[in-house]
Design brief:
Radius of gyration: 19 Å
Order of helices and strands: HHHHEEEHEEHEHHEHEHEE
Shape: globular
Distance between the termini: 16 Å
Helix content: 40-55%
Strand order of the largest sheet: 6-7-8-3-9-10
Length: 287
């Protein structure tokens, strides 16, 4: 059997269109007001970092020989058996697999919601599986956006307030009180981006399934993440609404250079991605 790392690995080559997007974002960031400059500081520094000649850009996300098992009573159930994966900056990657194949488990490990039993996970060149829980929480809040099949919107909050929750958690009550107006404007801009400008004051029970998923996407973008992880984002939607959500993810990837990793069991959905890999027998294989 071939080495999983070799099967799933990929050389991240420069892409002129994505380089143009990064350059445009950098130019735009240089004319921001001082009040908004801080939120983009990490991305600006990365864009300005010089590359060595003929050296391909670093992989944004890497999993190396990852194992993960769960226990049911006295029985140990292996899920991942040496899974390896590379994700390039600006890529739209689909991970396919049957129900129960470990797709969601792998996504949770990539997003630092859980840690592997063995193996390594690196994000932006930093190993993250050894970080303490609080550091992983901060990483997700500031660098990684996540959307789920069942939305996970808080029912007592409005759509706007749900989108603001990552910032509220990051800043705390007092600091949010000082900076809240700026962040509320940003949240409204994101709701407009996902087609919910007219629904920001509604609560989740007043939204359709597609609108709730759009709100969840806006919430995931609130921290200006470098990576968006999507767990069966259309699995709870009708076909037409699902196509609209996929088109939105594709637009974010192409127009903003956002790196997207999506898990799905549906080949038709996977075809929207730049590249597809399969999770079979606990290892990642090229499609």
């Amino acid at each position: 059997m071939s080495n999983p790392a070799a099967v799933a690995g990929r050389t991240c080559l420069p892409d002129s269109s994505k380089e143009h997007i990064r350059t445009s974002l950098l130019a735009a960031s240089q004319v921001e007001s001082p009040a908004t400059a801080g939120s983009n500081a990490v991305r600006i520094d990365m864009a300005q970092e010089p590359r060595q000649a003929n050296k391909p850009p670093s992989r944004l996300l890497e999993a190396r020989n990852v194992y993960k098992s769960y226990r049911k009573g006295k029985i140990e159930v292996p899920v991942l058996r040496g899974a390896s994966l590379d994700v390039c900056p600006g890529e739209f990657l689909a991970i396919m697999g049957q129900s129960g194949s470990g797709k969601t488990t792998l996504l949770h490990l990539l997003g630092s919601l859980d840690v592997p039993d063995e193996g390594e996970i690196h994000f932006g060149g930093t190993r993250i599986d050894r970080l303490k829980s609080r550091a992983r929480d901060r990483l997700r809040n500031e660098q990684i956006g996540m959307i789920f099949q069942f939305y996970h919107l808080l029912p007592e909050l409005s759509t706007l307030e749900n989108v603001l929750t990552p910032v509220m958690i990051r800043l705390g009550v007092w600091r949010y009180g000082w900076e809240g107006k700026r962040h509320r404007e940003r949240a409204k801009e994101l709701l407009s981006l996902v087609g919910l400008a007219h629904r920001w004051h509604h609560r989740p029970r007043e939204l359709s399934g597609g609108e709730m998923q759009r709100a969840a996407i806006a919430r995931a973008l609130m921290g200006d993440p470098r990576l968006l992880l999507a767990d069966e984002p259309t699995g709870n939607l009708d076909q037409q609404t699902g196509r609209e959500i996929l088109a939105l993810l594709r637009r974010l990837n192409q127009e903003q250079g956002l790196t997207v990793v999506m898990v799905t069991h549906d080949p038709a959905i996977a075809r929207h991605a730049d590249r597809t890999v399969r999770l079979v027998g606990g290892v990642v294989q090229a499609s």
